[in-house]
Structures are given as structure tokens and as C-alpha cells.
Amino acid sequence: MENIDFATLFQGIGTMMASGWFLASARIFLVLLGLLLIYLGWKGVLEPMVMIPMGLGMVAINCGTLIMPDGTLGNLFLDPMLSDTDALMNTMQIDFLQPVYTLTFSNGLIACFVFMGIGTLLDVGFLLQKPFASIFLALCAELGTFLTMPIAAALGLTLKESASVAMVGGADGPMVLFTSLALAKHLFVPITVVAYLYLGLTYGGYPYLVKLLVPKRFRAIKMVTKKAPKNYDAKVKLAFSAVLCAVLCFLFPVASPLFFSLFLGVAVRESGMKHIYDFVSGPLLYGSTFMLGLLLGVLCDAHLLLDPKILKLLVLGIVALLLSGIGGIIGGYIMYFIKRGNYNPVIGIAAVSCVPTTAKVAQKIVSKDNPDSFVLGDALGANISGVITSAIITGIYITVIPYL
Hints:
Layout: H1 6-9, H2 11-18, H3 21-43, H4 48-63, E1 66-67, E2 73-74, H5 85-92, H6 98-105, H7 109-121, H8 125-129, H9 131-140, H10 143-154, H11 159-166, H12 173-183, H13 188-199, H14 202-213, H15 216-219, H16 234-251, H17 256-271, H18 274-298, H19 302-305, H20 310-338, H21 357-369, H22 376-400
Antiparallel strand pairs: 1-2
Helix pairs in contact: 3-4, 4-18, 7-12, 7-17, 7-18, 9-20, 9-22, 10-11, 10-20, 11-12, 12-13, 12-22, 13-20, 14-20, 14-21, 16-17, 21-22
């Protein structure tokens, strides 16, 4: 027994001991963080469909480090840094998640699948009923997306990195993934992880922001509708989606996969293809979201995340979401004055495009202060507009930033 090398036999322990105190501490921290995410997902504090697979992936990847045949530290999950074709093809036959990562994640396909599923959840009729208010609030709620970029640049990030982390303010995970893959591929893992960690907190954090900035007498406003809202049939919604998709793809071809995926989901919803709708809104959306969380967790290898910019990204992510929430509420107040008091400012928070979380947050807050006040329709209109404006800003950033 004395001849057995336990460090070699149990390589997870051996690599922990051999990797130095700093890297070992980082691995232990990420394991503990992964366990915390699993717990918070199980309790429902964070989104379980993303956080439980992400947390378990973080635990497994940081415990399952081993010594590779060439003497380097590695794992049998995936290697996101591979670029050589021969090495990639060889690794795809060994690392079990490498094919999933290479063929769905690194090319943005999984983000498009999620966006397609989100499209099936969007009833553009809410946007068509009050287009001005919805679009105006959505633009106001992009405050974090616009202001975080110069703040990030002032902290030493490049313009491409700044634009990528600023997209966290759009509160749309697939959009952050798509932008960072296009502009800052070396940082897309931490940026996307930060985005999904913080987006999980919007349901718990934004109500406090609203209560801080919107007094009770404003939160309790019951909006009076002078005439019944117009109901748009499926034909109008489908035509609107097709035309808007064509226009946006024409203007921003670099983001056309996102526009196409979103409006394809809307088209499936409005066309009456029940079986396809059930598939896209169910297995495709939930399966893609689950795999997205799993891959993000597995990508949280301590070797990949030991970047001095991580702390800046953590701070900037919070700043972006905070500014976007404030911008949406400011937009709500402006609409209140435009409508001469017949508008609830809380609706502004719904313009932050975390579908449909922020719309539910708005209605929940309003209902507590006035059970007779129903703002969900207006909130969903702002919410849907927020998704579209975030996609447009993604297209603008990816198109313009490389030339600056």
C-alpha cells in the first residue's frame, strides 16, 4: 500500500494540491458557488432551469480536473480554447460536451433556439395597442446598455469588451451571449455567466428599486381606459412580424439570426401550427435553456475565469442592470406626465426585457398597493418592445463597434 501514489490515483485531489494555493482556492470557491447556485435554484430564489445545471456544472468541472497525457491540467468535458481543426476533431471524440459546445454554443445556435422559444411567448398585439408608450419605455430602459459602455471603457476595457458587458443592461441572456461571441470572444464566458447570474436576481431585486423610486401613491394608480383596446387578429400580427423581421434584417444583417429566430417564434405562435408551437415553446425552449445553463457551468473552470477583468465585469453587470431599471422608471414618470396622471410609472420597469419576469414584477408590485389596478397588458407591451430594442442595439454594436 505504501507504493500507491494517492495524488495520481485520485487526480482531483492531486491536481488541487499541485496547482498552487491561488488556483486551488479559486477552484474551491467555484465549487462552493456552484453548490450555492444549486440551493438557490432549488429554493426558487434563482431560475432553477438555468441555475441548477449551471451550479452542478461548476462543481463537476472544478472537482474533475485531471492530468492530461501531455502533462497539462485538463478535463473530459470540453475545451473552449481549441481552434486547430485537427485537435478539435480529436477532442470531439473524447470530451463528451465538446460536440454540443462546438456545434451549438460557440456559433450562437443555442442562443437562437432560446430566442425562437421566447418568440412563441410574445403576443405582439400588446405592442400594437400602444406602440408609442411601449417603444418609448423600451428605449428608456436601455439606459444601462448605453451608459455602461463609456463607464467600462473608463475602467480600462476595450471598446469591444465594453459593448459586450454593456449588453447585460438589456437583461436578455441570449443577446449578451451573441454580442460577446461576436465582439469579445475571449471574455464571453465570464460576461455571459455574470449576465445569467444577475438576471436571476431581477425578480428579487427590482421590486426594491421600484419601491425606492416610486412612492405608494404612484404605484397605486389605476389607469382609466376611455375606449376598449383594439384586438388585432393573427393575420395582422403575422404580417407585422414578417415586415419588421425583413426591415431589421435589412438594416442589421449581422444580427439577422437573432431577428429571424425571434420573429419565427412569433410566426409559429400566430400561424396556428399547434404541434410546432408546442415543440418550440416547450422542449426546444426549455431544453435549450437547460443546456445553456449546463454549458455555462462547465465553462466556469478556474483556469478560464482567472482574469483580472472579472471583478470589473461583476461591478459593471450590476451597474448596467441598475441603470436600465432606473431608466425604465424614469420613462414611466415621463409617460405619467404625458398622460396627465393616467399612467402608472411602475410599468417602466417592465421595459427591461427580461421576458416575462419584469412584466410580472410590475403587476405584482401594483397589485399589492391597489388590487383593482391591472397594468399587465401595458407591461407586456413594454416588455416585448424591450426585447426588440435590445436586439436592435445588439445589431448596432456588432456592426459599428469594430469600425471605431
